[in-house]
From TrEMBL, chain A:
Belongs to the ExbD/TolR family. The chain crosses the membrane at residues 26-44. It is a single-pass membrane protein; Single-pass type II membrane protein. It comes from the Bacteria. One of its GO terms (molecular function) is transmembrane transporter activity. This is Biopolymer transporter ExbD.
UniProtKB/TrEMBL annotation, chain B:
Keywords: Cell membrane, Membrane, Protein transport, Transmembrane, Transmembrane helix, Transport. InterPro entries: ExbD. This is Biopolymer transporter ExbD. GO terms for cellular component: plasma membrane. It is found in: Cell membrane. It is a single-pass membrane protein; Single-pass type II membrane protein. It comes from the Bacteria. One of its GO terms (biological process) is protein transport. One of its GO terms (molecular function) is transmembrane transporter activity. The lineage of its organism: Bacteria, Pseudomonadati, Bacteroidota, Sphingobacteriia, Sphingobacteriales. Belongs to the ExbD/TolR family. Pfam families: ExbD.
């Protein structure tokens, strides 16, 4: 790899003493190696440095009337209850008389995404063309990662209507009965 | 008849141009890379596939980890104006030197009454362990200090943008954006308290800060 210095050693024996030529070539291989190593390092660190932003919009808060709840048709909404241990319980319709009763599922590609994709097709058929509404209810045992994961799923599956709302005591009972309310 | 001479290809390549280009690139990346200050509160954010980047300016960041809440503003001028408003609201006076120090402060997590004490410490002593976090509750009164900080920071941003209106080529960047940088393992009640604090002042839009995940 490195340039060989060919006239070293016995070359000068006996013969005319040659004046060494100043300048000539400098071996730049090592320098280029180092430069590229540094380039790679800086390229990787600059692109990995900037954090991503996930935008969230909450509805306007009605301070006058706390019970001002939006009525949603039962056959349009599915509810995701975020429990502990990275698991979700979901149901379709109202909790009192669900169309699909609460079931425990996992996060990710195999779990919640399959449900969302399925319901995205099923809901317009049942509700006369109206699209799916997803209600996200994080329980106090869920962590920030769970919420971000779910919002990410909404983006991946492209659910147009979803909201984050407060969990109620009946739903906490559901989580308890499914063993998803542990510390 | 002369023998055909086999030309010997030279083994050495001239690397000068390559070296030039690589150092040019290196210089570019070194200069564009922004040195990241070591953050006081270490937050391990969750990951998402969201393509949006966090804006560099006009941003207030609320960091949460281990139940501690820190607040920081990106723009040093906004920081100064915010502190002025806070100093009036909580009747705590700051000296010119303290304002200058506060302008350099990226994030902090102390109640307003302990802020002077924090500013009196040198940079390397403002560790996480001595900062108990900004007090937050579900009210809209002075006891909810995060509420005041966010509100005053938003006001200061408007004030600052207005003061720059006359400048040539100035485009109003709009109101301050709020980002919540929460630890992946932070329990929801702490997050909820912050979300409610923001909603109470009609800051209904905000961002969660996340890392980038390649696969979905």
């Amino acid at each position: 790899m490195a340039e060989l210095n060919q006239d070293s050693g016995k070359g000068n024996k006996g013969g005319k003493v040659r004046a060494k030529k100043a300048g000539g070539k400098v071996d730049l291989t090592a320098m280029v190696d180092l430069a590229f190593l540094l380039i790679t390092f800086f390229m990787l660190t600059t692109s990995l440095n900037t954090p991503q932003a996930m935008d969230v919009a909450m509805p306007d808060k009605n301070k006058m009337d706390q019970n001002d709840n939006l009525e949603i048709a039962d056959n349009r909404s599915i509810t995701l209850l975020l429990g502990s241990d990275n698991k979700i319980s979901w149901y379709y319709g109202q909790l009192a008389k669900p169309i699909y009763p609460p079931t425990t599922i996992d996060y990710g590609k195999e779990g919640v995404r399959q449900i969302l994709l399925r319901m995205q097709k099923e809901v317009p058929q049942r509700a006369g063309g109206k699209d799916l509404i997803v209600v996200i209810r994080p329980s106090e045992k869920s962590v920030q990662r769970n919420l971000v994961d779910i919002l990410d799923e909404m983006r991946i599956v492209d659910v147009k209507r979803y909201m984050i709302s407060k969990i109620n005591s009946d739903e906490i009972e559901v989580l308890k009965s499914e063993g998803l309310f542990n510390d | 008849m002369g023998k055909a001479k086999v030309k010997r290809a030279s083994t050495s390549i001239d690397m000068t141009a390559m070296c030039d280009v690589s150092f040019l690139l290196l210089t570019f990346f070194v200069l564009t890379a922004t040195a990241r200050q070591p953050e006081v509160l270490v937050v391990d954010t969750p990951q998402s596939t969201s393509p949006e980047k966090l804006p560099d300016d006009g941003l207030g960041i609320i960091s949460v980890a281990d139940g501690k809440i820190f607040f920081g503003m990106k723009n040093p001028n906004v920081r100064e104006l915010t502190l002025k408003n806070i100093s009036q609201k909580y009747s705590v006076n700051f000296s010119a030197e303290e304002y200058e120090k506060f302008k350099q402060l990226d994030e902090f997590g102390v109640p307003v009454r302990n802020l002077r004490q924090l500013l009196s410490l040198p940079n390397d002593q403002r560790t996480e362990s001595i900062q108990p976090g900004i007090p937050v509750d579900s009210t809209e009164t002075a006891s909810n200090e995060l509420y005041s900080w966010v509100q005053e920071a938003r006001r200061a941003t408007i004030e600052f943008n207005r003061s720059r209106e006359g400048e040539k080529g100035f485009v109003d960047p709009g109101p301050m954006k709020v980002a919540i940088k929460a630890d992946a393992e932070e329990k929801y009640p702490a997050i909820n308290l912050i979300i409610e604090t923001l909603r109470n002042q009609k800051q209904n839009k905000f961002s969660f800060v996340t890392g980038l995940r390649q696969d979905n």
